[in-house]
Amino acid sequence: MLILCTDSLRGYGLDRIFEIAKKANYDGIDLAVHFDQFDTLNSEYLNKLIKIHDIKIYSVSAPSDISTNQIEKLVQLTKELSAKILILQPPKILDHKLAKWMKKEIPKLREKEKISIALENSPAGTFLLGILPSHTMANTEDLKRFKHVALDTSRLGEKKQDLIRTYAIFRKYLVTIHLSNIKLGKKYSMPNNGILPLESLLSKLKQDDFPGSISLKVLPKYLEAGNDEKVFEKLKQSKEFIDKFYTNLEVPKSSEEKQNDEIEQ
After folding, report:
1. Cβ proximity of 88 and 117 under 8 Å
2. Which pTM value belongs to this model?
3. What residues pair up with 87 in beta bridges, in sequence order?
4. Residue 201: which CATH number?
5. I need a surface site. Which of 95, 108, 120, 146 has the fewest CB within 10 A?
6. How many helices (H) and strands (E) does the chain have?
C-alpha cells in the first residue's frame, strides 16, 4: 500500500492534499499531526475529508516533543479515523519520565484499543558536546522491545546505516516505512533519485510480502509544492518508481509453489 504523508505537501490545506493524493492514485493518507494546526486534530473534519475525497487515512504520525496526555489523545484520534497505525517518535535523551511511561503503557494501549502503535528510528544528532545520542529508546534492542517499528529511510541514510541489513533486523516488527532518498547530502529527497539503494529495499519488501504501508515522505520543495502541474508530475514519478520495484514486481515462485501449481493443474 502506497500512501502520502501530508508533510510532503505542507503549505497546502488538508482538503487540497487529500484531493491531490486521490488524483495522483495514492492508496491512502499518512496524517502528520501538528498541535498548532488544529485541523490535523479534528476527527470530524478529517472524516469529512475522507468521505468527500474517497481516500482513507491509514496512519497517524505524531510530532516530537509530545506528552503522555497528547499521546493518549492521538490514540483516540487514530481510532476515530479508523486508521491502522499511530507512529511515535523516540523521547529526547533526558525525558526519562516519558520513556518509562511509553515502555509501560503503550503495550496496554495497543491491547485495549486494538491499533498498532509504532516507534520510529531516531534522527541523527547528539547531546552534551556530542557525547550522548539525542534520543533514548532509539537503539536496535529498544526498538525490538517496543515490538512495532516504523523505519525512516532518510534517517537511516543520514546515520550511514545499511538499509537492507536494518530491514532484516526489524523485518518481523516492521509495520510502516517513511520512504525518501538522500541526494547531495540532502534528506527527504525524491525516492527515484539519490544514493540510497531503495530499489533493493522495495524489491526485498515485495519478496517478503510486506503487509504494511509505504508512505512517501519528502520535503515539499522536492515536489515543487505550489506548482500543481509539477506536484502531480513528481508524485507520478515517485509512484512509478515504487510500482516498478514493489507494487508490480513479479517475484519468482519457489520450487514448492511451482509444485503446488502443477498439482492443482
Report:
1. yes
2. 0.93
3. 61, 118
4. 3.20.20.150
5. 108
6. 10, 12
